[in-house]
Fold this protein.
Amino acid sequence: MYSENDLIPKKYAVTLTLEPESGELEAETVLTLNVRSDTSIEFDLHEIFEINSLRIDGSTVDHSTEDNEPTPVNPASKKVKIADGWKGNKEETVEVKISYSGKLKDIPEFETMEDQKIGLDDRITEDHIELACYSTWYPYFGFGYDFDIDLKLDLPSHLISVCSGRKVSSKKEGERRIERWKASKDNDIVVVASPDFKRRTIDGPFGEFSVYYTRLPEDFVKKEMEEISQAIQLYQDILGRSHISGTEFKNVYSPKEKGQGAFSRRGMIVYSEGYILEQLEEDPEMSIFKWNAHEIAHFWWNIGSGQSDWINEAFAEYFSTLALEEIISEDKLEEYIEKYEEFVRELPEDAPSISEVEPYNSGDNYTIRYYKAPLMLHELRYKMGKKEFIRSSKDFYDKYKDTGVKTSDFKSFWSERLEEKNLTNTLEGWLTSKGGLPDDAGAE
Ligand SMILES: [Zn+2]
C-alpha cells in the first residue's frame, strides 16, 4: 500500500561498488532525511542484502528487519526499523549512514513467462547491469520524492555506464573505473551499464540528448533521434523549458531480453532493448514515437506524487497524442481517442474513480490513469478549444511545477478556467464517478 509518511529523503550520497563477475554490490549510503516529529525511522531495503553498519548522526544504532509482502513493483524488500523506535522529537534533519552488501534475489525479468505475477528487471551480471528502485537497492521510502544524488560508482573499467543525472568525473584506476554522477531533484537512483553500449548525442535547442544502445539498427536510432528532437521542441514551445532541464536527456536501451517495456525518470527513459528488437522483427517499420512522446512528456509532467500521480500520466499521455497530431498526422488523435473510449467502456462498474485510483498500474488502474483521465483532458480541450487548453496547461504546469500538485488542485484550477468561460463544469463527475465514462461526459 502506498502511504504518505513523515520521512522525506532529501539527499543520497552513495558509494557503490559493483562486482558483475560475482553479482555482488557493496554500498555505503549517507542519507539526509527529514523526520517529522514523533516519527520512527524505517525504510525498505533489498530483502537479501546484509547490513554491515547503521549510524544516525554519527552514533551506531541497532535495527530489526521484517520481510515486506512482495508487490509487483517491489518484489523483494524488507523493512528496516531502527530499534527502540528512534523518534524525531521535532521537525528535523538527520543523517543516516548505512553500509550494506549482497547479491540481488534471483527473480526472472518481467514478461519472462505467461501470467507472471512477480518480476524484477534489476540485474548485476557481466552482460548487463540495471539498478532502479524496483529492487530497493538503496534505502527506499516509496516513489515520488524529489532528492539530490551524489553517486560515486566503482565498476570494472570495460563497462560503459549511464546513471541518473550528469556524469561529472571519470577516472581509470587499474582494472576499475571510478565515476561520479550528480543529480538534483531526481526521484530514483538508476544505474545501467553494459560492455557494449554505443552512444549517439545531438545538441538541440533544448540541450543535449543521447541514446545508449547495443544491438538496435542504426537507421532506427537515427530516425528516433529526429522524432524525439521534434517532440521535445513541441513540448518546450507549449510549456517552456522543463523544470528539470540542465540534465542530459537520455534514452537508454537496457540490453535486457524481456522486462518492462520502459520506465521514465527525470530526463532519462530506460527501455528494454530486447523488447524493442522483438517488435522490430515483427514490423521493421515499427515506430515508438507515441511511446517516446509519452515518456518525454514526463520530463515536464512529473509534478503529482502519491495518489495524484494520475495527473502525470493523464497529461503525459494526452500530450503524446497532441505530439502525434502535430508531428505525424491529425488522424492519429481520433484513432487514439477511440481506442481510449473502447477501453474505458469496458471498465467494471466498481472500478475506482480518478480521484481514488492508486498510483499503481495493476488491475483497472492502468485504464483509469492512462485512458480515462486523458479522455477528461480531451473533453476540456474540446470545450475550451485547443489554443486555450494549451495555454491553460502551461499555466497549470507553471503554477505547480515547483510545489507539486494534488487532485484537489487539479479540480479547482480547471473548474475555475471552465467557469470563467461559462462552460459546463463536468469535472466532479469525471473525478468521482466509478466505472467507465461519467454520465455527463461530453455535456455542453
Ligand atoms: Zn507515463
Notes: The chain has nine helices and 20 strands.
